[in-house]
Amino acid sequence: MAPPSLSVIIPAWNEADQLPATLDALRHAITASDLGVEIIVVDNGSDDDTAAIAQEAGARVVREPERRIARVRNRGAELARSPWLLFLDADTRVTSEHLLAVRDALADRWIGGGVPVAMDRPLPRFPALGLSFWNALSRRFSLAAGCFFFVRADWHRSLGGFPEHVYAGEEIGHSRQLRQRARRQGLTFGILDTDPVVTSGRKLDWYATWQHALVVLVFVVFPWAGRFRRLSWFWYRRPGNR
């Protein structure tokens, strides 16, 4: 059997609420783009219906017990059959435009990258400024957001995948590695000129504005904070789960 054109890897921990819409959007995008795509959902110890939902949607489900997002992403990549990988968050909705843009880039001189990001709701002033700043920073320094991160499988694996010594910010470290190596070989790692991919703004419901600001401040002042689970709580807690 010929390998799929693209392997989409979705890390998921207790995502029964968000995963159905994500998989539905992905299925529509696959149909409209006419690409051969395999979907791998990496269940990170969920105690809800995440795995069952993924299986019913036709995704391949694998399990990774370690609660470290870099490890979860890498677990999916280890099993992917395509030479091209797309890491997609379980609350992020892609379109056929995104899939086709990834295909065209990787078929050219790109080794990977990301796309601009938008939220699924109107944003208050501070979060809106933060998102605009991220999109500008992302494009200027070729930093792909973790919610939509595409890469050639051979390059991903040659660098050891996402750095597993951190609990958060693994996409920043991996972006830097890939960008530096790509430039040395006259290739590209960057941000595609597409419409933004829409991801959930649910953390605005979960945490107060001051908590968002505190997280930004901690990671700006202490760039190594992602090495510690306690300081990376923002990515591992949610209402009813600790």
How would you explain this protein's 3D organization?
- The protein has one domain (6-235): Spore Coat Polysaccharide Biosynthesis Protein SpsA, Chain A.
- The protein is built from nine helices and ten strands.
- The chain has helices spanning 19-33, 50-56, 69-79, 96-106, 125-141, 153-158, 170-184, 203-206, 209-221; strands at residues 6-12, 37-43, 60-63, 84-88, 92-93, 110-114, 117-119, 148-152, 188-191, 197-199.
- Strands 3-2-1-4-8-6-9 form a seven-stranded mixed beta sheet, sandwiched between helices.
- The longest helix has 17 residues, at 125-141.
- The chain starts with 5 loop residues before the first strand and ends in a 21-residue tail after the last helix.
The helix fraction, in percent, is 40-55%
Q: Indicate the CATH topology.
A: Spore Coat Polysaccharide Biosynthesis Protein SpsA, Chain A
- Termini Cα gap: 42 Å
Describe the oligomeric state of these chains in a short phrase.
single chain
Major β-sheet strand ordering:
3-2-1-4-8-6-9
Mean pLDDT: 95
Low-confidence stretches: none
Globally, the shape reads globular
Return Rg in Å.
17 Å
Number of strands: 10
CATH class: Alpha Beta
What is the number of domains? 1
